[in-house]
């Protein structure tokens, strides 16, 4: 659990931070990032100045959470929050 051991799920405030997450993730994998699609806010409450949605995403009002798709350059997709994916935590700055 990110909040127990670190700060929270990782955020990608710009392309550079999204690339840092991509560098540690094997190609073809998905991972949770800390963007609440429903409120369009990061886990710390700030609004994203940068987004990297895959074409056609977000596409479902029932899907409240966001994954980065590393089979597609780390682009983001909305998906149900109860799906099982790896996740990245942060403890402050990248």
What would your notes on this structure say?
There is one protein chain. The protein is α+β, with helices and mostly antiparallel strands. It has a single domain (2-90), classed as Mannose-Binding Protein A, subunit A (Mannose-Binding Protein A, Chain A). The chain is built from two helices and seven strands; from the N terminus they run H-E-H-E-E-E-E-E-E. The protein has a three-stranded antiparallel sheet, with no helix packed on it. It has a two-stranded antiparallel ribbon with strand order 1-7. A two-stranded antiparallel sheet has the order 3-4. Strand 5 and strand 6 (75-79) form a beta hairpin. The chain is globular. The two termini are 18 Å apart. The relative contact order is 0.29.
Strand content: 15-25%
Helix share of residues?
10-25%
* CATH-derived architecture: Roll
Radius of gyration: 12 Å
Question: Any descriptors?
Answer:
C-type_lectin-like, alpha+beta, Mannose-Binding Protein A, Chain A, two-stranded antiparallel sheet, globular, C-type_lectin-like/link_sf, C-type lectin domain-containing protein, 94 residues, three-stranded antiparallel sheet, CTDL_fold
């Amino acid at each position: 659990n990110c909040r127990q051991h670190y700060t929270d799920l990782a955020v990608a405030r710009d392309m550079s931070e999204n690339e840092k997450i991509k560098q540690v993730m094997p190609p073809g994998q998905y991972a949770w990032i800390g963007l609440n699609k429903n409120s369009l806010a990061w886990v710390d409450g700030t609004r994203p100045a940068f987004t990297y949605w895959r074409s056609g995403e977000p596409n479902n009002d029932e899907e409240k959470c966001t994954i980065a798709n590393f089979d597609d350059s780390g682009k983001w997709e909305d998906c149900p929050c109860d799906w099982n994916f790896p996740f990245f935590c942060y403890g402050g700055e990248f």
